[in-house]
Task: structure prediction
Amino acid sequence: MSEIDLQVKLGNLTLKNPVLLASGTVGYGNEISQFTDLSKIGAIITKSVSLKPRKGNPPQRIVETASGMLNAIGLANVGLEVFVKEKIPFLKEIQSTIICNIAASSIEEYVECTKVLDHEDEIKGFEINVSCPNVKEGGLEFGNNLTAVGKITEKVRAVTNKPIIIKLSPNVARISEFAKVAKDEGADAVSAINTLVGTAFDIWTGKPKIYNVTGGLSGPAIKPVALAKVLEISRNVDIPIIGVGGIMNWKDAVEFMIAGATAIQIGTVNFINPQAGIEIIEGLKNYCKQKEITSLAEIIASYKLPS
Ligand SMILES: Cc1cc2nc3c(=O)[nH]c(=O)nc-3n(C[C@H](O)[C@H](O)[C@H](O)COP(=O)(O)O)c2cc1C
Result:
């Protein structure tokens, strides 16, 4: 049997395999590099970068929940200037494809960040975060507004030829409408999904466990929701989908592909098992061998509604 081809294309960018590390769960690559071989990973998506540094929310910012976690980091990040000066040199060394995730509180800020980073050769594409549930400005204010998502995509598209991925929120009624707007305005792919809004209370103090009151739920608890969102987009919009939400192992990754994902991202699992990405790549190769297929293209969006 010929070699198994795990390559995937996102716009004009070819990735060696479809396993990406999700934004916010590996810092700028530096938080995981000692524990795994990042050169084997399809791509690393950086922590959201904003024009100015952000302190994020005060603690408590993370709480464990049944089969998952709530986080309300509030997009804490070093800001564009420090990112370019201090983080990109490290990212250059790790020989992986780098996709920069951008967050902003205005359309102009998204455009400005993209323009600056477009000049950085090391950044191969952009994931535009229009869906953070943990910030007052930007975040969901954009993520559940079709016009805003369309405008952001259009304006960012105008300043770069690198691939643009719009990261969609699950906290909307019809996610496929957002994927359609992103496609119509020139996005190369969408990521689905960001975290789901959730909360948790301390029964003795009667107070929320998270300072921000609500946070974003991630981990295995959200996998069925993420899968259904990927399926909805896949049935309604012809755009590459990067599936994300609760993927813990290669079997989860295969499920997302059957539902319509071209590639996948792993987030929460990185905190538990930093080798998960490499294990998933190996698992996908073995799965292809067992299924006697030479390319994952044969399983992507292979589920069709019974007619
Ligand atoms: C601690 C933490 C921080 C995150 N920070 C970001 C972020 O800065 N930008 C972003 O687009 N998504 C962020 N996310 C969302 C993840 O990228 C991902 O969409 C989500 O966690 C679902 O995937 P998972 O269940 O595999 O973790 C964060 C998630 C976690 C758990």
Q: What stands out?
A: The chain has one domain: 8-56+73-196+219-298. The first helix runs from residue 80 to 93. DSSP finds nine helices and 14 strands in the chain. Residues 22-25, 47-48, 71, 73, 75, 101, 129, 132, 167, 194-195, 218-219, 222, 244-247, 266-268 surround flavin mononucleotide (CB under 6 Å).
